[in-house]
Amino acid sequence: MKPALSVIFFTVSSGAGLGLLVWLLIASLMADHIRMDGATFYKGVVIAALMITAGLLSSTLHLANRKNAIFSLVRVKTSWLSREGLLALILYPLAALHLAALHFGWPHITPFTLWLLVADAIAILYCTGMIYACLRTIPRWNTWMTPAKYVLFGLMSGSVLLPAALSLRPAEVGPIGKPMVAIVLLAVGVVFYIAYLLKHPRAQHTINDALGFKRGNVRLLDVGHSHGTFLTNEFGFVLAREKARMLRWLAIVFGFIVPMLLCYFTQWFWSASFICIAGLLVERWLFFAEAEHVVRLYHGQQRV
Amino acid sequence: MRLGLAIDLDTCVGCHACAVACKEWNGQSLMGGAPDYDAWGKAPSGAWYNRIRHYEIEGDPTYSPYRCGSSSDASEHQPLSKTVNVPMSCMHCEEAHCVTVCPTGASYKRAEDGIVLVDPSRCMGCNYCSWACPYGARELDEDVGVMKKCTLCVDRIYDEQLAVEDRQPACVLACPTHARHFGDYDDPQSKVSLLAESRGKQSMLDDLGYKPTNAYLSPRKPVEIKAELPIRAGLSDKAKAFVNRLIQL
Fold first, then answer.
1. Average pLDDT over residues B72-89
2. CB-CB contact of B55 with B21 (8 Å)
3. Closest residue on chain A to B100 (Cα)
4. Which of 3.30.565.10, 3.30.70.20, 3.20.20.450, 3.40.190.10 would CATH assign to domain B3-217?
5. Which ipTM score applies to this complex?
6. 20 to 30 Å CA-CA from B30: which of A104, A237, B60, B213?
7. What percent of chain B has pLDDT over 90?
8. CB-nearest partner of A213 from B57, B104, B209
């Protein structure tokens, strides 16, 4: 698949923003314990909102006909893309209601809005994953691991951003303790990512299945066009094996290992966040670049 | 009704006339619009609703040379090497996942005849439906930013101003070897149903569960050649055998 930068940025940025929102809300339940004051909470919410909104805006960049994007919420019954869009739009009034309840002091509704927000944020991450996981035409994505990955990596990058947001609190409060949630989630994340790399579905269809000539060698004689087409442009992306291997190591080291070490041994939470997000951008680029669509069989590839 | 095409892999010569006729008809039609990009330049490209690809099928040398099989053969042997031309357009699948994934409702499958269409006034050009299509039937029209696909010439087949024999998709009318047939698969007596029944059809990624409507008719078996000679040979047989021996020298 062609790795579209707008979609890669959207999934990583919105994912981290939603994760940060979830952890900020949960942290606000124990604000006294972790010494998070109101101003710091609001600063964190602004960061999360900026990341989510920037991602959502970026996701519209790959649309060829943006004026019809208004219709994209009407097929909630069948389309995961529609579901994701609707849940993302619900997030804003819900967040506004929660902040209003905090500001005006309506303690009887804050627990509801808080947990609804947490559920909505996780549901958006799940929907983003299911957009890709529901495609039977791309075997590599068509697995439960895809939505699990989107939810886990979103919550993980958000948990690294949480201590960074907390570090915005007044200096006299003192240093932040070890962000154990971030460290544990980064460890779970790296184990999951390596398991994904080893266990994702692969090579399920052959060119024989594609054409129905079950026995014997089938090979492409002529593809019928002299230059690139929409199909070769969209699905024909080829990634060199050496490059893929190097990028996978980059993703593992910068997405997980380095942020984990920074969180454990230092207080450089902003650096940890940026490095984690950079690593996840590489991971997400690979997610698209390595996925193979079955239409490649008709263009002469032997197995997908 | 379940309208669709039957495409004969035996008689298709891969001339691309169907694709050209498609482009000619749909280039300006109401439902269509298939632009070319850089048509006379160094990298000509464009949106096509129908693309023809050519494949080599390598035979099985251990199989009897006197019988030619295909996927309709019970043993699925393909003994003879051959070139197969495969025109591909929208299969108008029964389980059209491209319609399911569409977030705007622009992609739809008509209940009355099963034709899958795109409503250009709702499509936002997200390409998601093209990702869901295993057959590469959908291509983006970059000029207007809308997904385009085979309409089964929906603006021809119901046009009562045309003669009855002309109410068929442009590709079917253009095919010089009559390798393309159009009809209703829900009618067991229609031409396409009978052809698919008698010739057998290729299964193309059937395990994905899309249930494509179009049928690709399997290559026929050639007539079996009898190897043995008649037991009591007459004078004419002897003369033929003599001539054959001369030729073989």
1. 72
2. no
3. A78
4. 3.30.70.20
5. 0.91
6. B213
7. 69
8. B57
